[in-house]
Amino acid sequence: MRYEMMLPRQIRAAIAANTPVVLPLGVLEYHGEHMAVGMDTLAVTCALDILEKEAEIVILPPFYYGAASYAVEPPEGTGSVQVESAALNPFARELFTGLLRIGFRNIHAFIHHQSENFTVGMPTDLAFKFGARQAIFAFLEKTRGEGWWGDRKMADYYARQSGGDDPFNWIRVHPLMTAETIAEYPFDHAGEGETSLMMAMCPDAVDMQSFSAERWYAETAARATAETGIRGRDLILAHMRKVLGLA
């Protein structure tokens, strides 16, 4: 279900069923001459297009305006859009606060951009992770009062945490590709892996007639195939099904 198309009764039903609510999170960034600037976000939205046909999930409008950085190329004539993480954090906090107030308790964001360093974190995912924690802490204090965690009612907190019933799991941010996926599939920027993924999932985002091997990071795109991309797509979908409880 696309959130923007939902009626209030459908929203209430999704809350009652604890249906996963998913935010596609990404950037607009130069990916060589042969690929669309939205690749990082398109990888998430295209995967969700598939999952939406399989199971009940709520898909929020995608957020494309992450911290792309200019590490790859300057923006002039290339299309990268850089929004500083300092601006992203308050947005994330307010967005997640709003979703909690609506009643959602099973919120997820998926990101592909710079996620090879996900355990350490990069500007976009860190801004949204921090925003999620801020939103949860503020919401709990507002709804349960100060000292909520120290209350006798929370004496079984650690037992509930191991069982998954933990308010800090209300909002989770995930990499689109896990370390296990990266071990099985080429992870790159505009190279064989990403180009293959777009060939399989969003062919309109690739134009190999425009391909140039001038930039080192795009050289391996010459080896890209839709068949390779299908392998990556299937690894991504298996991971998403698992963390969303759809497997």
Protein described:
With 247 residues, the chain is an alpha/beta fold. The protein has a single domain (3-187), classed as Creatininase (Rossmann fold). The chain is built from eight helices and four strands, in the order H-E-H-E-H-E-H-H-E-H-H-H. The chain has a four-stranded parallel sheet with strand order 2-1-3-4, sandwiched between helices. Helix 2 links the parallel strand 1 (21-25) and strand 2 (58-59). The longest helix is centred in the middle third of the chain and has 22 residues, at 123-144. The mean pLDDT is 96.
Helix content: 40-55%
Give, in spatial order, the strands making up the sheet with the most strands: 2-1-3-4
CATH topology: Rossmann fold
Task: Give the radius of gyration.
Answer: 19 Å
The general outline is globular
- Which segments are poorly predicted (pLDDT under 50) over 5 or more consecutive residues? none
CATH superfamily: Creatininase
What class, by secondary structure content? alpha/beta
Instruction: Compute the average pLDDT.
Output: 96
Number of strands: 4
CATH class: Alpha Beta
Biggest sheet architecture: 4 strands, parallel
The total count of helices amounts to 8
What is the number of domains? 1
H/E series: HEHEHEHHEHHH
Q: What is the name of the CATH architecture?
A: 3-Layer(aba) Sandwich
Termini distance?
Answer: 18 Å
Percent of residues in beta strands? 5-15%
